Amino acid sequence: MIESFKHLEAMAGTRDLAGVFLESDAEEHAVPAELIVEALRKRRAVMRDCVERGRTSEGASMGRLVGGEALLLQRAFEEGRTFLDPLTIKAELYALAVMGENSRMGVIVAAPTAGAGGVVPGMLLALEEERQIDPERTVRALVVAGGVGSIIALSANISGAAGGCQNEVGVACAMGAAGVAYMMGGTTRQSIHAAAIALKNTLGLVCDPVGGLVEVPCVKRNALFAVHGLTAAQLAMAGVESVIPMDEIVEAMVRIGRSLPRGLRETAEGGLATTDTGTAIALRLKDEANARRAERAAERERMAQERKSGATS
Ligand code: SF4
Question: Whose CA is nearest to atom 1 of ligand 1?
Fold first, then answer.
């Protein structure tokens, strides 16, 4: 088992990082490498489909707090109204597209969670397209991203409820940054430093979803942090290294998560969720839920009456 990032670096040496993870999985779980690669090929295809659906949809989310953000950015891009470079725009666009689908209960790939599911595809698929990278390389980058997430998960619970958004979007950034460094031909050391730079700069990120829904701030947050992850990978590929080793960053993340107040750990009892607007939205959602409940109860009552009168006639 790969127990830490220090262990990973020593074990990998100059070998292909995806190959190291695949070999380790085959030894530990007796799953042949080709099966894992095939499973991730399918995940990449689901990510791609999800981006295609999400980038053109105008549909609102379940709570109607978000919807159509990807389409707005896509139109701006097509009409020449964007000012960032195409890789950045596409990373944002694809992350928004995936999260739009998630907010409408569409099929997505949790990476590592549904709430942070836009970051990895945003980064990897945008890079694949913009740099014309072989999709098989993206599949292997998903092996790397998954491997990085698994090592983090050995010491940290990957959920906003456990430690705030650093544990979801932060971890997704680390996974994606390692995958991007791998796609760009980086060494294992560069992939680990890309992950470290990405993760440490998300520490303290709280989980405060408005109305308890994975919509605000989650959807736009994924787009912003896809770019954050690309930036971390770029720094690592240029030779910039994290002073604090990745294993210690994960330990810090766990400690910070434990010290976060309950209201900032997915309870919707703090942060953005308790702003004036957040509170008003939560009330509106509650009223709507109560109205739906009352409607269903009335419908059940009506049907019961109908059955009763049918039985007595
Ligand atoms: S704010 Fe909370 S619910 Fe939203 S993405 Fe972050 S961890 Fe997930």
Answer: 207
pTM: predicted TM-score of the whole model, two decimal places: 0.95
Domain ranges of the chain: 5-269, 275-313
Q: How far is the CA of 290 from the centre of ligand 1 (A)?
A: 25
Whole-angstrom distance, CA of residue 83 vs CA of residue 77: 9
- Is the pLDDT at 312 greater than 80, yes or no? no
Per-residue pLDDT at 313 exceeds 90: no
Cis previous bond, 86, omega within 30: no
DSSP 8-state symbol, 265: B
In 172-203, which positions are buried (b, 16+ CB within 10 angstroms) versus exposed (e)? Answer: bbbbbbbbbbbbbebbbbbbbbbbbbbbbbbb
pLDDT in tens, 279-296: 999 999 999 999 999 999
From CA 287, how far away is CA 277, in angstroms rounded? Answer: 15
| Tokens standing for residue 310 | 């049918």
Domain 5-269 belongs to what architecture?
Orthogonal Bundle (1.10)
- Counted residue by residue, the chain has a size of 313
Cβ of 115 below 6 Å from ligand 1: yes
* Residue nearest atom 3 of ligand 1, based on CA coordinates: 214
Distances (CA, A) of 77 to 52, 132, 184, 254: 15, 19, 25, 39
In sequence order, which ranges of 104-167 are alpha helices (DSSP H)? Answer: 119-130, 135-155, 160-163
Residue with tokens 């994924």: 222
* Protein residue closest via CA to atom 4 of ligand 1: 218
**Maximum separation of any 2 CA atoms in the chain, in Å:** 84
Nearest partner of 159 among 260, 278, 40, judged by Cα = 260
Name residue 207's beta-bridge partners: 265
